[in-house]
Amino acid sequence: MHSVQFTAETTSGGVLERDFTVGGIPGVLWSPAPTSERAPLVLMGHGGGTHKKWPAMPGRAHRIVHGCGFHVACIDAPGHGGRPRTPYDEQEIAALYRAREAGEPEGPIVVRYNADLAERAVPEWQATLDALQGLPEIGADGPVGYYGLNMATAIGVPLTAAEPRITAAVFGLHWPDALAAPAGRITVPVQFHLQWDDEHIPREAGLALFDAFASAEKTLHANAGRHKEHPRFEADSAARFFARHLTRSVPAPAVN
Amino acid sequence: MHSVQFTAETTSGGVLERDFTVGGIPGVLWSPAPTSERAPLVLMGHGGGTHKKWPAMPGRAHRIVHGCGFHVACIDAPGHGGRPRTPYDEQEIAALYRAREAGEPEGPIVVRYNADLAERAVPEWQATLDALQGLPEIGADGPVGYYGLNMATAIGVPLTAAEPRITAAVFGLHWPDALAAPAGRITVPVQFHLQWDDEHIPREAGLALFDAFASAEKTLHANAGRHKEHPRFEADSAARFFARHLTRSVPAPAVN
């Protein structure tokens, strides 16, 4: 098993931000500063074409650290941020840009490429979680959530379906094609975000993915607006969702 | 214009509860205790077959008073609580019970009866709002919201469409039949609650009513579960929605 290697550390606005690697995968861990007591962990994925420190990521992480007192970890997806692209990555990204320039639908390419990324990313997330749970301020038996929209939903749905340590998840803004089957194996509480006037994802497709989750407790938040108009206040909804679901069973802190 | 006649007053858990009448219509006003500064007002409707002090009403009111520092007012709908039933009320209520006993759909009766109740209730709400705005702790130009599910949506949608003083509204759990047209005239921010597995209101019907609002800012909260399983945490969502939309433009308190 790989362990967490910390490579840099800053503190800003009461939040400790530590860059790390696990088996060569670069990540960042946001924590309450100073970190002393054990706290739940939220795994947070970034969207397609961005990376672990894209402004929305520290923004959402700070809301969760401040609002819940939890840790938040994000790693670069394959081919993203500080990670090399394979020839297949280059080919799919070129196909996506061609479709955009031609005004053709992005959906078929995004669905296909994200499914491939998910196959590579799921084991990386599991190794990262193994390593993070080795830190005394997280621990092996603490609550774990997952938070990711767009490409991070394409990765997070199969991850959550495969990973019993994840007990609550926020997803959204994706097609059901490759995800309806793993969603049907997810039974933990889910909050799902959808844009009512999404120009890429047909409304019926977004609703079908929400419908596919087997969770007894699931909530859809659908907002008026286009794909990129997903409102910022939904990051607060996500933080409150995690506060509700990850705090109940926090184990007593280990002797440390 | 009628004025507010207070008839009883209690204080519990930091909330002042005052019974009142306006032109013979009985209501209740919940306020932060002690009430000193001017604060926004939320008009809250009760569901069919219940009344202004049905447990959900003071429960939701306390969340708004505590969470936002606002006033909350609820009045008994026609034929409900302390108000007499007309022969037409008796006839429709009997028809509803017959449909329930026979296992027939309630929808057609509820839609028809609630539309009639709304015609009677809208002017009553307007007179109540006129009178409440005469109180120094509310005032004539403060922000006003509306919050009501089920029958209170059937009343609240035409009320909000007709009433420019209402600048934010929470609705839900109703059919679109009589409401899609007035919803199409509503442009203020709306939060809409729907039960994903509602045994009375078909999913497509609930989604169609959400779709009908002309508001640029509208959010659907759809939760897994049947009609009566609407989760309690959505009362907190409503309180946060009102905090976001009714606090920005609070006028300076009058000299008092």
TrEMBL record, chains A, B:
Highest taxon of the lineage: Bacteria
Gene Ontology MF: a single term: hydrolase activity
SUPFAM superfamilies found in the cross-reference section: alpha/beta-Hydrolases
Alphabetical UniProt keywords: Hydrolase
InterPro entries in UniProt: AB_hydrolase_fold
Name the record gives this protein: Alpha/beta hydrolase
Organism: Streptomyces sp. 900105755
